[in-house]
Amino acid sequence: MGITALITDVHANRQALEAVLEHAAARGATAYAFLGDLVGYGGDPGWVVDTIAAQVEAGAAAVLGNHDEAVVKGSTAQMHEDARAALDWTRRQLSPRQLDFLAALPLNQRRGDCLFVHANAYDPAGWDYVQGRMEAMRSLHATDAVYTFCGHMHEPKLYHLSGTGKAGDFTPQPGIAIPLLSHRQWLAIPGSCGQPRDGNPAACYALFDAAAGELSFERVPYDIEAAAARIRAAGLPERLAQRLTEGR
């Protein structure tokens, strides 16, 4: 499998995705997995969908996120006002071909020992968040995959489950390779590429070296002002532009 770049929650942020793809290629990535929420919030949904569709055509994995589903099916009154405004706008920007691409994304993909899913393994269509050990254990118990990679949560996190059923978790430090022992199960959340929420505005993603059994979480600076300008130019809520700078 080589080195796989794990990218999630791009949220139509072209500048962040461009920076992450360049960073991953420079570090030897030969495969890509996109873990959902390609669109929503950001100002370049068409470019992001086309770019990821090209990656899928070349062999990348990609799964459906809740924002992708909402763009295809239409937003609901239960959604946050800012998210609903962005989703309604996004739907108007995308062509039928781009919407069809999103609609065809699976809820999960299994490739060897790896499971790719947006929210969790136990109920992918329910969009529950893996907020802590309890949800992580439930997700890991729902699959026999050694490695589960998911998005939805916009903060980097790593969980593991030992053969005796004990769970552990920690917040990774960027750029440090972590050995993923194969006798444990692992659930990794790379953090959001296009809208990080851990107080650090740099784009998040992770690199998985299958041969070495190592995972590194990465942070990539990008042109935040340009991404925010695209949101403002689209007439989307100002808060969506501000939070890129804040990383919240």
UniProtKB/TrEMBL annotation:
Domain of life assignment: Bacteria
Q: Which residues form the Calcineurin-like phosphoesterase domain?
A: 5-210
The family assignment reads:
Belongs to the metallophosphoesterase superfamily. YfcE family.
- Can you name this protein? Metallophosphoesterase family protein
What organism is recorded for this protein? Roseateles violae
